[in-house]
Structure formats: C-alpha cells, structure tokens
Write a structure and sequence with these properties.
heterodimer; A: alpha/beta; Rossmann fold; 2 domains; 5-stranded mixed β-sheet; 12 helices; 19% strand; B: 177 residues; alpha/beta; globular
C-alpha cells in the first residue's frame, strides 16, 4: 500500500480503528487534540463512537465501563489531563481491564506549557495511579512506529489484561512522516471470558471490580498480577541499538529525543568519536538487562531527555555504577539541537581522554 | 539531504507550503519529515515549519540551520536569516520584507510574491508562488511532478482551486527577478 503523509496524532486515531477499536472517550487538550478530531470524523463512518466527555475524569471512567464489556477502547490526553485520569487508571489496573491510553506530553508541572516534553516519565513508569501497579509503556520514535505500536498496544492490552500507555510528546504528535498500516501482525489472543457483556441466561454473570476488603484476598490478586508483570518483563522488552558495538559512549534516549540523539551520534562519528545510541522502545518494562550488558562494553553513558532527568534513574539502576552515567536535558518545552547534544558527547569524550 | 525552514505569519499558508514539499518528497520515494511550530502563533502570530527531504533515514526532524529559508515576513527574516547554513539559500518575499541580507556566504533571492499574487488575482497564494520559484532554481523536483503531487492533494470539493494553484506555481516558476 502507498504511504500517506500523516501527523503522529492522526496516525494514533487511524491505527486504533484498524486495530478494531470502536470506542473513544476523551477531552480536548493541546497538543493531542488531532486524535479526537480525527476520530470524531472517522468513528461514525465505521459504526464507532467518539465521545467528548465533560472532563478527563468522566472520560477515563467511560473507558472503564466500556473495557469491562470486553470492547477495545482508547483514550488520549496530554500531561495535565493524565494527572486527572490517574485515579481511573488505577481502577482499570485494579480491575485487570485492557485499554490503550495515550499521553502526548507537554511541559509541566501544573498547566505548564504546550510544547514537547518528556517530564511525565516518572508518572508513566512509576506512579500512573495509586497502589502496586504498572502499565506497559511504549515510546515510539517515528510516525510509522506510532502506527505499528498503536495496533500492537491493543494486542498487548488484551493478552495481558492491562492498560497500555503510548508515551508520545508534542513533537511526535505534530510531526508528519510517511506511514502505512501494514506493519502490524495481529497476535493470537485469549478469549475475553471475564467480560461483563451479558450472559443471555447461559452462564453465571461476570463481575468486574477492584475492591477486595479481605487483605489476604487482595494480596493474592496483586501477586497474581505481578506474575503477569514478570511475564511481560520476560517477553515484551523492546529496544533499538544503533552503533553500540564499538561505542565508547552510549547515549540512551527515547521518542523524539532519540531522533536528535541519533543525529548527534552521526555527527560525532564523523568527528572520530565512537558514539552509539540505545533507544528503549518499551519504557516499562525497561531494557535493564540489555543496558547491563552494554555497561560491560562501553566506557560511559549519556542519557538525553526533555526533562530534568527521570529515565536516567533507570539507566543508573541498570548500569549499577559499572561506568559513569551522564545526563543532558532540556525542559519546559525546549528541545536540544543536534549540536548541543554533540557538544555534550564531545565534552564527556575529552574528559575521558584526559583521565586515560 | 536538504533541510528547509518556511516561516511567516499565520494564514499565509506556510504550513501548507511545507506540506507540499514533504508530500512531493514522499511521492519521489525520499525520506521526509514535516514539523510545524504549534501554539498561539497559529492564531495570527508567526508560523514556521521544518521540512527535511533525504535519501537516508532522518534523525532529528528539527531544522536549526536550514539549507533553504523561505521568509515571508520581517520577524521571520530577522530571526532565521542568521541561522541559514553556509552556502544555503534565502528565499524572501520582498513585498513584505524590506530588509536585505548582508551575508556573503549565502545565495539571496528576493521575490515580490505577495504583490505578484495580488496583480494576478491570486490573493493569498504568495506561498505557492514562492514554491514555484523554488522549483525554478532547485533541481529537487520536476515542475510537472510537483504540480501533479500538489493538485492530487486538493479535494474534489475545491476543484476550482486547481487552476489557481497551477497559475500561481507557474508564475513563481517563470519569475525572473
């Protein structure tokens, strides 16, 4: 199929429809509104529903209701909206409900700004809601990957009965690149025999719930859920290595920042510095084992983020002080230039040379 | 690889012009990215977009030092002209930008695109005139290929615009300043 030139946000909408999602509940916020806008046009044409709720809180609870019936359902927002949705997301996790949640990140905290940011990494990977919980967090770095990953997200959600987050940002959302929707191979998925979708008098009714008054029952259920998390960590870690084999410095960056980092790596290679890039594609589960392996080969890491330094914590945990882990970040909606990142690599390289 | 920055006021069709370049690049089998400025500038302030057209996969989609700058108002000229890469090109709508570049390491071209558009009953199509002029000196795209790519994007409900776009693109292409 010929490729189309589309915005990242539009591609999320189109890919969701291709994945069989027919329900979207959201509330507008820059820079993700094209998702709602596209679905408002598209959903009626495929007998689906795109509903603008009265608030983010209403929208996420509509997701909970729809997901309880076993339907594929999507919601999207940008940073402040995700904070509002966090209660509902914890309920979704506590009820073992599959759904796809998109965060097109903007600067924070508070209302912050509307320009691209990656300052919700902690929120997405540590505490997207209260309680012992995780989400699968995917970080696409091209519009094509957004298309493939959005479809994959619905499969992952159904396979592991968990919400899946696509952690995008303002730049990824607004950027246009060529895309087709052929890249995704659907998974074989279990029956949704837990769904509360009507019994027709033929079986006992299902209950979808996150309240367990007896602590021993709750502990058992949380532990079972964590066994599923173990399986996810075992099977679903994804990353991209770029010129890491002989690298003296390995950059770690995800999403739009990985694009800038890759260009900086190329610039440094031209100047004779052996730089490489490890791009986590899944932020949870994080490619920690792979980083530990790289730590045996390389001399230093440089994490680049659109934040004051969040993912760098995961890099440090994985590297366990084998080699130094540096950080370079811009925040508030500012994006580093390729030259800025290349200068940072050069600085670290020069200081390593001096020490040697 | 060619990196292009298009800039001007919101409403001049800056983002549209950038999309035509990216779309033609895609149809020519190249790697392309299009990244707009977004936010309050879309509502009357300055607007700009970064376009990269390349034979190889594109890293950063941000254009900080453009090979080509299209400047369609004075604030854009003042902000971006100093950032043009050495050996790069400035394309300036001289009906809206009275300033001239003093740089000697870039190729400066001044086209009175807005005045030309008004003279020919093509109000609001200075952006397409600029694109046409771009095609005349850069061998990135063949004129007919670009015209077809652009017209294919115009929906049937706006078919009347095809002729006007054709006229504007040709006007820019044939302009000899």
């Amino acid at each position: 199929m010929a490729k189309s030139l589309m915005k990242g946000n539009e591609v999320i909408a189109e890919a969701a429809i291709r994945a069989g999602c027919r329900l979207y509940f959201g509330y507008p916020i820059t820079p993700q509104t094209e998702i709602s806008e596209t679905l408002a046009k598209r959903m009626p044409k495929v007998d689906g529903l795109c509903l603008q709720a009265e608030s983010e809180i209403a929208a996420v609870n509509m997701v909970l209701g729809a997901a309880s019936t076993g339907a594929r359902v999507l919601t999207s927002s940008s940073s402040p909206g995700l904070s509002l949705k966090s209660e509902g997301i914890s309920y979704l996790v506590g009820s073992d409900l599959p759904c796809v949640i998109v965060n097109v990140q903007r600067g924070g905290p508070g209302l912050g700004g509307i320009q691209p940011s990656q300052a919700d990494y902690y929120q997405a990977t540590r505490a997207m809601g209260h309680g012992d919980m995780h989400l699968i967090v995917l970080a696409p770095a091209s519009v094509q990957e957004i298309g493939d990953m959005t479809q994959e997200a619905f499969d992952l959600a159904d396979q592991y009965r968990t919400p899946v987050m696509i952690l995008s940002d303002g730049a990824m959302g607004q950027m246009m690149e060529p895309v087709d929707f052929e890249g995704h191979t659907p998974r074989e998925l279990p029956e949704k025999d837990w769904a509360a979708c009507g019994t027709e008098g033929k079986r006992r009714h299902n209950i979808v719930n996150s309240l367990y008054i007896e602590p021993d029952v709750l502990e058992k259920i949380v532990k079972e859920r964590f066994e599923r998390y173990d399986a996810i960590a075992e099977n679903e870690v994804r990353y991209e290595d770029y010129l890491t084999d002989d690298a003296d410095i390995v950059l770690v960056a995800y999403g739009i920042t990985a694009r800038i980092a890759k260009s900086a790596v190329n610039a440094c290679r031209k100047a004779g510095i052996k730089a490489g890039l490890m791009r986590p594609i899944t932020l949870w589960p994080f490619p920690e084992k792979h980083l530990a392996e790289l730590a045996e080969k390389t001399r230093a890491f440089l994490t680049v983020e659109l934040s004051m330094g969040q993912m760098v914590d995961d890099v440090r945990l994985a590297v366990e002080h084998r080699v130094p882990v540096h950080f370079y970040g811009r925040t508030g909606g500012m994006m580093p230039s390729v030259d800025e990142v290349a200068a940072e690599i050069t600085k670290i390289y020069e200081s390593m040379k001096k020490e040697a | 690889m060619v990196s292009i920055l298009l800039s001007g006021f919101g409403g001049q069709g800056i983002l549209f012009a950038g999309k035509q370049l990216a779309n033609a690049g895609m149809l020519a089998g190249k790697e392309v990215t299009w990244l707009p400025s977004y936010g309050p500038e879309m509502r009357g302030g300055t607007a700009n977009c970064s376009v990269i057209i390349s034979d190889d996969p594109i890293g950063s989609p941000l254009v900080n030092t453009p090979d080509l700058l299209v400047a369609m108002n004075l604030p854009s000229f003042e902000k971006f002209e100093p950032r043009i890469a050495k050996g790069g090109t400035l394309l300036c709508d001289s009906s809206l930008v009275s300033a001239k570049s003093t740089r000697t390491d870039i190729d400066c071209r001044y086209i009175p695109a807005t005045a030309l558009a008004d003279e020919h009953g093509l109000r609001g199509m200075a952006n397409v005139i600029m694109l046409g002029y771009f095609l005349s000196f850069n061998n990135l795209f063949d004129f007919d290929f670009f015209l077809d790519a652009m017209c294919a994007k115009i929906p049937a409900s706006k078919a009347a615009l095809i002729e006007a776009n054709k006229k504007a693109l040709k006007l820019g292409y044939e302009y000899k300043g």
